[in-house]
Amino acid sequence: MNSETADIDMNDPPRLVTIETTSRCNARCVFCPNNALSRDKGSMSTELFEKIIEDCKQFPLYEIEPFLQGDPFSDPQILDRLEYIRGHLPDTRLRLYTNAYGLNERKADRLASIGLDDLTISINTLDSARYEAMMGIPLARTLANVEYLLSDRIRGQLGAQITLRMTCFDDTSLHEQDEFLRFCESRGVESSISGLYNYKGHIYSDLPVPSYGCEHVTRLDILVDGSVTLCCMDHNGEYGWGTARDLSVLELYNHQVARRYRDLHRTGRREEADPCGTCNMFWPLLDGLSPEQEALTRAEFEAYVVKNVPIGRRRPSGSATLGNLHSQQVSIGRRTVDS
Ligand SMILES: C[S@@+](CC[C@H](N)C(=O)[O-])C[C@H]1O[C@@H](n2cnc3c(N)ncnc32)[C@H](O)[C@@H]1O
Ligand code: SF4
């Protein structure tokens, strides 16, 4: 332990650890900053991955997500890694998000034999022209993979709660949302419609910055090279601290920088935390609050949801459309090349 981490509280573990096993992605979603990362893309070494899992065995870890930027099925070793996590952290909930484009029948069979607790498939729309314009890949292959995964045999073996997720633009019609909801209902899966996050101002989104604390400060996010990033919105790891190559997961979570973020968010000072005062991530921080603070945060979150409808079926407002996100990606791409 070095001097920076000497006063670590080993009794304060993260509720969730995310590991970016790859930063590569087979899609090019116009709303996702993965298209414009300023760091090199690649996959995590086996040695580092296994070291992080070993660290996680030192405390009770509620949930683990082996992905961050990129798509897990762009990591050639993802199935081995999922199996490794299951074997070494059998009591930790294993969650995965994927666009399912790379999740073919062979991989689905193996995934089912490993088992998951939660699987979210980011399908975004069932309109094939919009899907292609939004994600840069054809819908037909994704849909075929999804249908196979949802067959009784595979989902029975997989044992996961399955959610299909739609990212809602400000021009996503109610018809498009209803088609998506009908599809989910007919297949007996959960549905989730989410508005756009602004990635600290990098992506256009009309959702305001909440005043309450953000739930992301009670997780630990580790990038491909082992460096810690503030959260999934800090896609280039600009606000991170330390690396899992040198420090344990518990040391990193209890690092003075991490604790300062938690303190600011827990004491109603989100706007003082850079870059959190510009980030519209709307899920509330409830862990570690007094009963009064928790009740207040719940009320603020409910008011935010009623006013802004960040989740669920939402009337189009027309400000962040697929078209203007396309032109924005071009400018984000330029900024990255220049930097
Ligand atoms: C960053 S992706 C990584 C996992 C995987 N590639 C996928 O598509 O599910 C995680 C989730 O974030 C969503 N996402 C990406 N950019 C977003 C944005 N600007 N606003 C809201 N959700 C976004 C994706 O659609 C996906 O559901
Ligand atoms: S407010 Fe935004 S930038 Fe800050 S921790 Fe939450 S998601 Fe990350």
From TrEMBL:
Top-level lineage group: Bacteria
Biased composition (Polar residues): 318-331
Keyword Zinc-finger listed: no
Region called Disordered, residue ranges: 316-339
GO function terms (MF aspect): catalytic activity; iron-sulfur cluster binding; metal ion binding
Keywords attached to this entry: 4Fe-4S, Iron, Iron-sulfur, Metal-binding, S-adenosyl-L-methionine
Elp3/MiaA/NifB-like radical SAM core domain residues: 15-220
Names of the cofactor(s): [4Fe-4S] cluster
PANTHER family: PQQA PEPTIDE CYCLASE, RADICAL SAM DOMAIN PROTEIN
Protein's name according to its UniProt entry: Elp3/MiaA/NifB-like radical SAM core domain-containing protein
Organism for this UniProt entry: Candidatus Neomicrothrix parvicella RN1
